[in-house]
Amino acid sequence: MRSIGAAARYTSTPFVDTSIWKHEALFSNRSKIIALPALPETARSYEGDVLLDEFAFHQDGRAIYQAVGPSIARGYSISIISTPNGQQGAYYDLAKEAGLVDNEAATERWSTHKVDIYQAIEQGCRDRNGNPLDANELRLDCLDEEMWLQEFCCQFLSIASQWIAPELFEKCVDLGASVGDPDPELTNLFAGWDVARHKDLSVVWFSERLGDVSWTRGVVDLSRQPTPVQTRFAMGLMRQVRRMCVDQTGMGLAIYETLAEKYGKSRVEGVTFTLASKEAMAVHAKNRMEQGKVRLPDSDLVRNSFRSLQKTTSPTGQARFDAQHDEKKGHADHWWAFALAENAAYRPGDAFLRWLINDSEKKPKSGDLEERERTYHQVVDAAGRPVDGDGKPLQEAQSGGGVKPDAPLKEGESKPFAFTDPHGILRRPSFR
Fold it and tell me: Global pTM?
């Protein structure tokens, strides 16, 4: 009303014996606008022109459309506005009938209009401060290509899509990446463990971070091993692991608690698999692959696991990542072990993942993430002192068993000792 300068009297009244409210704007000429929740029961018993906003995301769109049918039959019009929400639901069916999906209308009863971001910018669309929009900047802010195509380009995407395309996997394959137990000489690994006992595969993924690239250094299948055996195996490799993320959903909780008690929560983190956490990890891991910062082994078992992951979208817009159960290939278990290892290596959980699952309203600045990552890529300067990614000296540990080197190291030479990073966490890495 404010945008067109119209004066109206606003009222809000609840429906009897419910917590549902009806809002009205009454104008001086006795016409009015009634705003109702998107529910079939609230849409009945009214007459007038109908506007259904973001109809593709209504929980029961078909029932709502049926409820407003009598109003349309009495000579009023209906307008439907929505962002696409996949190839599903009442809105998709109506859009396909009208020709918005494939440009082939099955009926002439609709007047169709589509405005994507490019058309909107061309027609003068600006932000709230009057600044022109930049399509390239908006695209960079999207989590993935699917978000860009659906939210800004008005495309109806398949609700079940392969998350990791075959060509993306092959792009990341490198003969230097390996499966099996990690080399016992490696002592700076990050691990992810997708825990299982009977139905699925129990997979531990080991990665080494060289610069900003993750190299797979081992992939171990502990399937159908008793829980104590799996736990002892993990303990045997913890001397090589700087940080491990463990699936603590279900039976994984006991394993996580055992490891966390022995090695501390700074080295072992439990991750509960929820829709939100799985989406956050899946997006982060895929982004790393798309950026060419992952080296994967040439393994058909790993390849099939990655390809099996499907992304689906519910009518309410909630993303779901899942795969079919397969007795031999598992349940995308290698993928989730890899995603957990990426989470362990690059610490997106502290700032990045919280933003993804909407625990924070503002995306963290890139500098914050860069600073976060620099603290986990330690090097030695010419005097043999530990420095961060910017070459600034780190504080040497004064307690907790810190050991200083016997003599200064030559630049690039490897010799482990203890120090605390800028976050006060005791580290004992091997410098490379």
Answer: 0.53
